[in-house]
Write a sequence for this structure.
């Protein structure tokens, strides 16, 4: 049985909300219905790690939501119902609109480049569009540009780890639902370490060192977030094409730092040998990523 998706919705139009809710419930999905922007924001902030897709009706009162999501480094698959009001024409906001994709009369995108925009008359096809939104999201690079509507653009270092972790979680669900193979593991060589500027390289390596330090510090403790941190590190290393030797170097530098601290405290550094398991575990995760990136024979 396929895993149900957690869908967060903001649909002020009663008729549209009813149609969408009926179709989501029929397919055993778990919809959360929100009627005010404040309620929507509170829920997203609290449940952002569990939400699989946003389904929004574009209204003036939620336009600020897109910028808020960026400020909080929240990037999720999204289906947006567009009204004629969204095209800045004087007409009833709930009037259905039919148009081809993409919508050239609107800004390039409202939230991010992988959003799916549809008319109000497409509510009965919401399941198809949710799957499409997740599929597009899995192909989205973490270094996309912010929308013209958003005045606050987060740095890549703020967005990428959370973004990649979300991609990983959704990839497993979508592969289970649709039989996708390898969608998530496609890489763009423009974002490989060797192709970055000196500043970008330094920022990337600093992020890797910071994340690996957190993994080391929590590896033998009851850290509920440990697997997520390992995923963040491995995803970032994979998509940046970080050499394994670089990961070993990060590990050894950190062990040297800890060794000096232990000597100052008059303690044995033998305990550091146990952290070889951390390095092995991390590299094993990375190897699995590479294994799954190889297209399967048909």
């Amino acid at each position: 049985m396929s895993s149900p998706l957690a869908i967060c919705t903001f649909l002020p139009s009663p008729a549209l909300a009813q149609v969408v809710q009926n179709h989501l419930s029929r397919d055993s999905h778990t919809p959360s219905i929100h009627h005010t922007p404040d309620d929507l924001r509170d829920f997203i902030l609290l449940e952002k790690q569990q939400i699989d897709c946003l389904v929004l009706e574009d209204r003036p009162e939620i336009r600020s939501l897109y910028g808020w999501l960026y400020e909080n480094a929240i990037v999720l698959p999204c289906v947006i119902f567009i009204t004629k009001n969204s095209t800045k024409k004087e007409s009833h906001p709930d009037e259905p609109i039919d148009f081809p994709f993409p919508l050239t009369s609107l800004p390039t995108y409202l939230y991010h480049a992988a959003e799916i925009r549809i008319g109000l008359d497409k509510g009965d096809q919401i399941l198809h569009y949710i799957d499409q939104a997740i599929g597009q999201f899995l192909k989205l690079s973490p270094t996309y540009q912010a929308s013209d509507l958003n005045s606050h653009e987060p740095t890549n270092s703020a967005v990428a780890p959370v973004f990649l972790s979300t991609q990983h979680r959704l990839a497993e669900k979508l592969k289970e639902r649709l039989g996708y193979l390898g969608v998530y593991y496609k890489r763009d060589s423009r974002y490989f370490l060797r192709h970055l500027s000196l500043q970008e390289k330094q920022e990337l390596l600093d992020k890797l060192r910071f994340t690996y330090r957190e993994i080391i510090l929590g590896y033998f403790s009851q850290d509920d977030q440990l697997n997520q941190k390992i995923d963040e590190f491995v995803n970032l290393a994979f998509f940046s094409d970080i050499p394994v030797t670089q990961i070993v170097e990060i590990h050894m530098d950190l062990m040297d730092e800890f060794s000096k601290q232990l000597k100052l405290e008059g303690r044995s550094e033998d305990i550091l040998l146990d952290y070889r398991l951390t390095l092995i575990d991390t590299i094993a995760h990375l190897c699995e990523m590479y294994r799954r990136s190889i297209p399967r024979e048909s």
DSSP finds nine helices and five strands in the chain. The domain at 190-293 is CATH 1.10.1240.30 (Methyltransferase, Methionine Synthase (B12-binding Domains); Chain A, domain 1). The radius of gyration is 22 Å. The longest strand covers residues 6-10.
